[in-house]
Design a protein that fits this description.
The complex is a heterodimer of chains A (682) and B (213). Chain A has 682 residues and is α+β, with helices and mostly antiparallel strands. Chain A is built from ten helices and 37 strands. The chains are: A alpha+beta (682), B alpha+beta (213).
Chain lengths: 682, 213
């Protein structure tokens, strides 16, 4: 009895001490380097707090804890003072228990987990645009606490005005992301490490994310705009690249140049050290809302390096909607779909900020919607599973025991958004080059689509003109007043059929935009062609029509489906040359229009077949030995262009920026401490 | 002598007199087709304010004016399209509802408050909404007279035209509603679930009528 009374008194005293020592608040945690051994704890004074420090340890026994002191303090917008304590040399895959202490005592108990040093799976959350819509922002934060991810990627636009008062509100709301745990009889808050991004609403202060979250991506001990980009290694499985899309603004070209040089060198040297590579930045290359302009500068900077170095998943923000794309490859000034491995782009913000009309689909868009959401991504050696969580209160709450027992488990009853064709989950595997391939279930029903590799129309009256990517899409007509006779040529990528033993169904789908009552024939193309060069003359005019396979009448706009299995067309392609097909009028002069892969929904060939699974995960061929040394948080850009050029042929296309190395960054490389290992000094 | 007097005095006097007699009246400025209406339904001067609605005397339609006051008429709020049980409920962001928002929420609240004296607010048809589109705007501005319609967003505005076939990436959703895009004035069909902007209209108000030609 005495023992119980004593324990109760002790707990009461501790509770009183917590209340009496509430001289700090707004606790946050950030990752900016090797997540297996370091983290930055940030907090702000709540009243008068002097000489604050962090007391931390690997168990709840506070007698065994160590102290870490404030490494730097920053003031944001003249109104928020933040102190940052950098914990280093932590044990991997370990719980870190801590309290922030000052002259009055120690505050609330928190804990987080360092990233594993092995290929252990985990969950990350990725979203952005928390700047307005506090009600939904809070719902999102509460959902995060239920999901218990290992880390959180935030794509920028933390607040609307980037003011101290709005940032205080953000930090107030961020407390809702804490999960409540009772560990060894103590009340703890699980706090999740944030990897922050600079958004356009932070543009009045390019040091916002280091002033508020304490990130020091370049490890120079200073808070500057150079801390808006860098890499975080989260286990050997994942390397997360944070980039600053706002460096495309005027006046930031030298920073853009430094950032892009660093990105190329880091991808070249360390990208393949991880099984998976993610990127996050604020502005989408191609927003899916017509009210936002495309960002060709970002495309020119990053699309090719992303593809070259097998960036698996890119998370964009800013537009306030959700999207999921095909795996894409840069093609001219746009993307095209590939089934042979590419980069998948998801996004675009809406963690509170009002959803916008998702009205600007691309030919490579799988689906999009106007919802409040963030992405929940399961990362494992075998693959990635990307889901879109909508914000409501339906989700169950994971306990810390459930999370400890299964690093991939997700709460029940999350309101997952269901994307067309994919359903609730996008499954990604890596091909032999490490690039992303969307794995669709071919076992249940065995249905999948063959993407178009080439599509173009040709005109008898403009017989030497190539119409690839024409804004009219694809046309077929017996006699048009402007173009004369029009044929459409379509070719499909048949590579996914290589592992299929039998095909039970093959259906051509055309998205008709201008209907016709005339009959059109589908012919096997008599000779080979490519969309970039095909003209009426180059394909032999009307002789490009080989054997007639099928015919159809496009009575209605919308999706027209035509059975191609019985025609033997696919067998002919597979056994001989894949010359594609020709669509031409069999009668009449009322033409038909349908969308091309450049103008909207591309033609598709839906297949039902018994096929083997796609290639499972493999590391890129240029991989370095994993985990032999620490991976630097950001590789100083000391690699000369001549070294990069052989592995990145398009380096000179990086926004036209010079590839000279800023002197400052060279100096920074000498300041890297030993924890960053020898690889940092390349 | 008489001839000289005629040219010096009489002729100029006659010309001046004729000019005075035949001077046309000063042109009366034609009434501009848009006029501001207060929340209570009173028409005010073109330079007056605040105003909550605009009357278009060409069409006889009274239009809701958007604000930035975070009330139900805030121009930043978005709505999914729900009309007479057709569409998707609560998929926009307006913050004046406990749940998320749809067009029926805005219609209900606006009729309850009898904005500008009317309780017959509704979604406009596409052709009605098109009457507000103007192409003579500054680059980057919405395609509308922002002097009368402030806080208009460059984006999609719902219309009452529904049950339209969706195309492209949205074809699997089958049907959607028409929206007028105030970027370029085009009408597009988008899924009911899209979060688009909304401007209500009424043709049953006591203050707004078609002006006699």
């Amino acid at each position: 009895m005495r023992q119980h009374i004593g324990r109760a008194l002790t707990i009461s005293a501790l509770l009183l001490a917590v209340d009496a020592s509430a001289a700090t608040k707004h606790y946050r945690l950030a990752w900016d380097g090797d997540a297996s051994n370091s983290a930055v704890i940030g907090f702000s004074p709540d009243g008068s707090s002097s000489n604050p420090y962090v007391s931390y340890g690997y168990s709840t026994n506070e007698n065994s804890w160590n102290s870490a002191f404030v490494s730097n303090s920053e003031t944001f917008d003249g109104g928020i003072t933040s102190h940052f304590v950098r914990l280093q040399n932590l044990n991997a895959d370990s719980p870190i228990y801590f309290r922030v202490c000052d002259q009055s005592g120690c505050g609330e108990r928190f804990w987080f987990k360092t990233a594993p040093a092995q290929n252990a799976p985990f969950v990350v959350v990725a979203g952005g645009d928390t700047r307005t819509g506090h009600t939904t922002r809070r719902k999102g934060n509460e959902l995060l606490a239920k999901i218990r991810p290992l880390a959180v990627m935030h794509g920028g636009d933390f607040t609307n005005a980037n003011s101290a008062s709005e940032m205080r509100d953000f930090l107030d709301d961020w407390e809702l992301t804490y999960s409540s745990d009772n560990i060894d009889g103590y009340n703890y808050k699980r706090i999740y490490p944030l990897i922050p991004t600079h958004g356009n609403h932070e543009d009045d202060n390019y040091s916002t994310i280091c002033e508020v979250f304490g990130v020091d991506f370049n490890g120079d001990g200073n808070c500057t705009p150079s801390d808006t980009y860098g890499a975080v290694q989260i286990t050997p499985l994942l390397r997360v690249y944070t980039l600053n899309s706002q460096f495309q603004n005027g006046g930031w070209s030298s920073y853009a140049s430094a950032m892009n040089n660093w990105l190329s060198s880091d991808l070249s040297t360390y990208g393949s050290s991880a099984n998976w590579r993610f990127a996050q930045y604020h502005k989408p290359m191609f927003p899916h809302y017509s009210g936002k302009s495309d960002n060709p500068t970002l495309f020119n900077w990053w699309a090719q390096p992303f593809y070259d170095y097998a960036m698996n998943l890119v998370v964009e923000s800013d537009t306030h909607l959700t999207k999921m794309t095909e795996a894409v490859i840069p093609s001219g000034s746009n993307f095209s779909t590939t089934t042979n491995g590419g980069t998948v782009y998801v996004g675009e913000g809406s963690w509170g900020a009002p959803a916008r009309s998702a009205n600007d689909a691309k030919s490579w868009t799988i689906d999009m919607a106007s919802i409040q959401q963030f992405k929940v991504i399961q990362v494992s050696e075998e693959g990635l599973v990307v889901r879109t969580a909508q914000f409501d209160g339906t989700a169950e709450t994971l306990t810390w025991e459930e999370r400890a027992a299964d690093p991939l488990v997700l709460p029940d009853n999350v309101n997952w958004w269901s994307a067309n064709r994919l359903g609730e989950a996008m499954n990604l595997v890596a091909n032999s080059a490490g690039r992303s391939v969307i794995e669709e279930d071919t076992d249940n029903g065995g249905s999948f689509s063959l993407p178009v590799s080439d599509d173009v129309f040709i005109s008898s009256r403009q017989s030497s003109r190539n119409f690839d990517g024409d804004s009219d899409g694809l046309l077929a007509d017996g006699s048009d007043s402007t173009y004369g006779t029009l044929y459409t040529l379509i070719k499909f990528d048949l590579s996914n059929l290589s592992g299929c033993s039998s095909i039970s169904s093959a259906t051509l789908e055309l998205n008709i935009t201008n209907r016709s009552g005339n009959t059109f024939g589908i012919y096997q193309a008599a000779n080979d062609w490519s969309e970039e060069s095909a003209t009426w003359n180059s394909v032999g005019g009307s002789s490009v029509r080989g054997n007639l396979a099928e015919s159809f009448v496009p009575y209605y706009t919308g999706i027209e489906t035509i059975d191609l299995l019985s025609s033997g067309l696919i067998d002919s392609w597979l056994s001989g040359t894949n010359t594609g097909l020709v669509i031409a009028a069999l009668s009449g002069s009322n033409g038909v229009d349908f969308t091309s892969k450049e103008t909207g929904m591309s033609p598709a060939l839906k297949i039902e077949a018994n096929c083997n699974s796609l290639t499972k995960l493999a590391l890129p061929a240029t991989g370095i030995d994993q985990r032999k040394g620490f991976i630097p948080r950001r590789l100083p850009a000391v690699l000369k262009p001549s070294i990069l050029m052989p592995t990145l042929p398009n380096i000179m296309q990086l926004g036209g920026h010079q590839v000279e190395v800023p002197v400052k960054l060279i100096e920074e490389s000498a300041k890297l401490n030993q924890n960053q290992g020898v690889t940092a000094h390349l | 002598m008489i001839t000289r007097l005629f040219f010096i005095f009489f002729l100029p006097a006659c010309l001046i007199g004729a000019a005075v007699i035949h001077t046309p009246q000063a042109p009366k400025p034609s009434q501009y087709h848009l006029s501001k209406v207060t929340a209570k339904g009173e028409v005010i001067h073109a330079w007056g304010g605040p105003w909550s609605c605009v009357c278009d005397s060409r069409s006889g339609l009274l239009w809701e004016v958007k604000s930035d006051s975070e009330d139900i008429h805030d121009g930043r709020w978005t709505y999914s399209r729900l009309l007479q049980n057709q569409g998707v409920a609560n998929n926009g962001d307006c913050y004046f509802e406990a749940e998320r928002c749809d067009t029926e929420d805005l219609i209900r609240h606006t009729n309850q408050e009898q904005l500008c004296g009317s309780k017959h607010w509704r979604l406009p048809t596409a052709s009605e909404l098109h009457t507000l589109v103007t192409t003579e705007v500054k680059p980057g501005s919405p395609s509308i007279e922002t002097g009368y319609f402030p806080k208009t967003q460059r984006g999609d505005y719902w219309t009452s035209d529904g049950n339209l076939p969706l195309k492209g990436v949205y074809s699997y959703l089958k049907f959607g509603g028409a929206a007028v895009n105030f970027i370029n004035g085009q009408t597009i069909t988008i899924p009911y679930r899209n979060a688009a902007f909304t401007r209500l209209v009424t043709n049953r108000s006591s203050t707004c009528h078609i002006a006699p030609q």
